[in-house]
Amino acid sequence: MSEKQVNTLRKFKQQMPKNRRRFRTFLTKLEKKAPKGIEKITAAIEKEVWQEVDCLTCANCCKTMTPTFTAADLKRISAHFGQTVEEFKEKWLYKERGSGDWMNKKQPCQFLNLKDNKCSIYEIRPDDCAGFPHLPKRMKDYVHVHKQNVEYCPATYKMVEKMIGQIDVK
Ligand code: SF4
Ligand code: SF4
Fold first, then answer.
1. What are the extents of the domains in the chain?
2. Are the CB atoms for 7 and 54 separated by under 8 Å?
3. How many CB atoms sit inside 10 A of residue 89's CB?
4. Cα dihedral angle (145, 140, 100, 63), rounded to 10 degrees?
5. Is the pTM higher than 0.85?
6. 154 lines ligand 1 (CB under 6 A)
7. Distance 84 CA to ligand 1 centre (A)
8. CA nearest to 59, candidates 160, 154, 156
């Protein structure tokens, strides 16, 4: 692990409050009008981000957010534990009002090993976890998602920081 990657979460917590307003303003402008060629630029930036951020020194998503469990996730993960879907839901999840989505009751997530920040069901984790923080997705479609995640995720923070340095928004 490089020095840059050490204490990803600690640095993020120090820097985020100082930059929140600037980052939100940038993302709001980007949401309204993304400049031409943005996907090419963000693809290159994403590669840089993962050279500087190490999720195993962070795990803030698993500590402070909840994934949404799809029907396929529920079937796969409950079977892994020899439970029925209903038993699994009752033990760990609640149904969110409005959306009807199944979410974790607990934070940190019950499947996070707090000693090493590793997911104990990594191979069969929810699709939502596998896709997080959605940095390689088409930027134009995901700005609103990054706007929320930048509050929690140092990789998203780094992505936005680098975008501000390289992308002009009007
Ligand atoms: S995805 Fe983001 S919040 Fe989750 S561990 Fe990696 S850097 Fe941290
Ligand atoms: S299932 Fe694994 S990856 Fe998903 S929130 Fe829990 S610990 Fe993190």
1. 3-61+133-166, 66-131
2. no
3. 17
4. -20
5. yes
6. yes
7. 30
8. 154
Contact 156, 49 (CB under 8 A): no
Q: What is the pLDDT of residues 77-104, one digit of tens each?
A: 999 999 999 999 999 999 999 999 999 9
Query: Can you tell me the distance from the alpha carbon of 49 to that of 85, in angstroms, rounded to the nearest whole number?
Result: 37
Percentages of the chain per state (helix, strand, coil), in multiples of 5: 60, 5, 35
Å from CA of 38 to ligand 2 middle: 30
List the structure tokens of 129: 């976890």
Q: Is it the case that residue 8 has pLDDT exceeding 90?
A: no
Give 120-163 pLDDT, tens digit per residue.
999 999 999 999 999 999 999 999 999 999 999 999 999 999 99
Nearest ligand by distance to the CA of 56: 1
